[in-house]
Amino acid sequence: MTSSFLRAPRHHKRTSLDLDVIIDGVLNRVEARISDLSEGGARIDGASLPARSRCEIHYGGQTVYAVVMWSEIDRMGVRFPYELSHGPLYRALQRARSAAMIEPVRIFHSQRSAGFGRRGLS
After folding, report:
1. How far is 43 from 33, CA to CA, in rounded Å?
2. In this predicted model, which residue has the larger pLDDT, 8 or 49?
3. What CATH number is associated with residue 80?
4. Does any domain span residue 1?
């Protein structure tokens, strides 16, 4: 008999960003980088703690508590027991979301030829 594991949908939208943080585990303190963040959790690169362990994330004078949900050699996913709703980490998330909403600049579209390829062959 096989069991199917259905994953519940995420409650918060994940946002890619690049933040240097300090992770405090039970026995160590390590510098790492948050590369994916939401109000409910984060993906942290450059640090790895055992799954189900607790840690603290220090950023901008704020301490955020987290539980490690999964862990690989050089990265891990953490869940926040209390959703981010204020503080420097939350403001960084809001800035990253605002930057992602801006449409990329369209350069050189007015200078493109109507032909085929770079040389405008017909």
Report:
1. 9
2. 49
3. 2.40.10.220
4. no
